[in-house]
Amino acid sequence: METLLRLLQQDSTVSREDLARQLNLSVDEVGRRIAELEQNGVIRGYQAIVDRERFDKNTVTAFIEVRITPERGGGFDRIAERIAKFDQVVSCYLISGGYDLLVVVQGTSLREVASFVSEKLSTIESVISTATLFRLKTYKENGALLTAETAEDRLAVSP
């Protein structure tokens, strides 16, 4: 199953016939395994990796480190789930280190992200502090390189 997952992560559009050939399985067996992974919640969805710099230059992505006070009986989970439900939140992770959560947010401007932090995120009672970092350029996302070296980028080599 791990090989099947790795292949799907690399390219979720690959046909079941190609997967069956690569895994030396029948098409029906590949379909059964994929259905089982989906039903068990291992596979949560299929997405395209989008190079935002080529597609949508107006999207601003921020990584917000959040320090919170855990709730009695709920720990970090209830607060993290509450934060994750905001439309602006793309991803939310419990992390180790000086902060408790890493929240990835997208907006149309720096001001929109700042408003989200000041009006929504920091007003949650359990939130102690935040630190916001803005994405300037993406080199690799979800295993896909987003920059390609072209012949023009290389310096000429002379003897």
Structural class: alpha+beta
Strand arrangement in the largest pleated sheet: 2-3-1-4
Order of helices and strands: HHHHEHEEHEEE
Which regions have little confidence, pLDDT < 50, spanning 5+ residues? Answer: none
Helix percentage range: 25-40%
Q: What's the average pLDDT?
A: 90
E-strand count: 6
CATH architect. name of the largest domain: 2-Layer Sandwich
Distance between the termini: 52 Å
How many H/I helical runs? Answer: 6
- The CATH class label of the largest domain is Alpha Beta
Percent range for β-strand residues:
15-25%
The CATH superfamily of the largest domain is known as: Lrp/AsnC effector binding domain/regulation of amino acid metabolism (RAM) domain
Question: Taking Cα atoms only, what radius of gyration do you get, to the nearest Å?
Answer: 21 Å
Shape: flat
Number of structural units classed as domains: 2
* Main beta-sheet annotation: 4 strands, antiparallel
CATH topology of the largest domain: Alpha-Beta Plaits
